[in-house]
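Batch job 17 of 40 flagged for manual review because the log was empty.
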Amino acid sequence: MVFVLLVFVCVLAFANGANDNCKGVATLVGFGAARPRQALIWAAVTTACGAVVSYWISGALVDKFSRSLFEAGIALDHGFFVAVLFGALGWVLIATKSGLPVSTTHAITGALLGAGLVAFSGAGIRWGFLVDKFAKPLALSPVLSLAVVFLLAWPVTRLVRRYSSACVCVVPAQQPAQLGGAAGALTMSAAAPAGATIVTGYGGACEAQPAIAAATGSMVASAIHWFSSGMVGFARGWNDAPKIAALGTVAAAAVAPESGRPLVFLLVTAAMAAGGLVAGASVLETLARKVTPLPLAESLAASAVTSTLVSLASWHGLPVSTTHVSTGAIIGAGLKNNAREVRWGKVGEIVLSWLITLPVSGVLASGAKLLLGWL
């Protein structure tokens, strides 16, 4: 049973990576800043980094998904966690195969409830704790991200439009800058390395100079976009790895009391990264191309808000769903860009998959728990 439990933990982490790794980089692909394979590699690397860091700063999340949902003194054996993993894993695999971005957090929560209802008839479940620490963050996070992105995208759009054509270049000092002209107005600066001059301007101004180095506003915006997308992956690994690892802590303690916990985190980290690389393309396609077009400003706002909200939730030990936050952010970005271009049919499919995640996972877990009880 210990071996089965560890295998299920790894498979759930793999399925989680396949469904969730792409949530941060979908805006990169949607805008055209990265090819799908590039985006998935970036997502795998940043998710793995977040998962590794979570080993040291995720005690609250590990506790919530291993013991805190149940009353003190309730015995949770290996069979219980196998049933929970089966319930969560079954639904996440089905959704990933269908290209639906569902919440592993929701699936684990539903599976915990389903197995708990069979094992303890509901008497051992802390219902108030469930509402305050699980239900509220999960329900509010997509609405909050949608609203924040919709509002934030307006000033971001103005900044991008104003500065995207700005340029800065370093030219040899002996080469006089060609101020003015059709290429765009230039300004020379004395704050430059010896033997060089810094020139700033707009449009194609810098292109007319024999520059040693140059940067444009669009290049800076692209770098910020990549960084914020990577931060979503980091925050996601930070928030999700402890939830999955928590389900394997019982087995880890039985196998190796001292080194079991780091072993489980290592397995979860590797499986999450591999899942996104091997099987993440389907959900990436849904979020990047089937929900709404994403111009640069809206993409930037969606990535920045998603990474910020998930990081804050992880820091405070709140089990939010990166799926809900990122999808809400993408929809908010689409509303800001053009509400008529949001594909509401696909949005409806995604929301429906969210609504049925908890009951389906619960039914699968309760069935697994009943079956294990008969064996």
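Reviewer: the log was empty due to a logging misconfiguration, but the result itself is present. The chain has a mean pLDDT of 81. Unflagging and moving on to job 18.
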